[in-house]
């Protein structure tokens, strides 16, 4: 093939002479004459060298250079196709129907909050100030496996971890600061750990080391990890051989670790407060929130079977009142179904008396306050649990063809006086609790009196099913709130 396609801007057409000197198949000849041309993609790359030389020139404009390049032209031309692809994907996403989507989102948000709190706790526990004295050679440690995709959504609160043995730890030298004047607790450290690894090679020289669980295939290697990759320190220590170069010695060391774990699956972790003497308020606050979230996980719909007519029956198929029904029969001053479910789920048994009184105030308070203050974290978590239970009860009624607005039912439980009632149960004076709430005195007194009435009914409910522990707890709650001016027979006395 020879010729020219014409000169740009001068010729309207060009001439090309094709001389075939050998036999061609028809499809091949058709492809040569009428086939599409090879795609031409820009390989333009704005290097640092080009950028610096542009900046040295007086009239240099790197942005203009990039803007007028063939690369940018192709990128701009691809925008309409990309927008179409985005539109198609959005339509596909919107057409998806996910069962229990709200519950899944709520559960996932709880998991993310849980992991964030766990990270905060680990940052405190494994700060050099607390953990350096425990990084002795031979101590067994739990550390994260590598190669986990953190960006992919996970519905598990457990991370993939493995175990190893500390060999040594080193201080990371800093070139920007004076290491001699820097305090040890303000420095960064790496820890040499003997653990199971898989080694792979990319190319000739590059070597990738991946930390894997001890029971998986791999070889025992000593790797350097940052303190942040350690998730737990064990109270168990091994006597290490002076020479860890032989493969057999390293294998035997990891076998000893597996033997300890077989007898103690938890790894005998050090107690941060008892052993490591961590007494910071931020640590204690995070631990309390983690415990509250773990309790929520146990009761969450996604983690457990959903409430159904089978496992939430109040009567048998023969119309005989069952245990739950006996409790609900005794409650008339609050929503009996929601309160019964809270009672049978163990919520009222697992919390303190003052917190229980505060939670029950949501059943008797009906007024709507503007800009009401949000209760403290512990009480707010309990209120979230109450809302979840109320939502399950409402959905169950809806499935049974009962006309009910689920969200209106859930919003009927209000936390506006939780803080005030909590303070009253703790023994505060009436004028003190009036300073932390904006409700009228008469409204608050009426609510506390109704709360006492609910507690009396719960005492009878607990007695009817033989729950002596709950009965005593409800009686203690009554004694905490039934006092002073709130229950005075007359304001003139």
Automatic annotation (TrEMBL):
Gene Ontology CC, one term: nucleus
A single GO molecular function term of this UniProt record: helicase activity
Organism, as annotated: Hevea brasiliensis (Para rubber tree)
Keywords for this protein: ATP-binding, Helicase, Hydrolase, Nucleotide-binding
Protein name: ATP-dependent RNA helicase Ski2/MTR4 C-terminal domain-containing protein
ATP-dependent RNA helicase Ski2/MTR4 C-terminal domain boundaries: 316-493
Coiled-coil ranges from the UniProt annotation: none
Keyword DNA damage part of the UniProt annotation: no
Gene3D superfamilies: 1.10.3380.30, 1.20.1500.20, 2.40.30.300, P-loop containing nucleotide triphosphate hydrolases
GO biological process entries: maturation of 5.8S rRNA
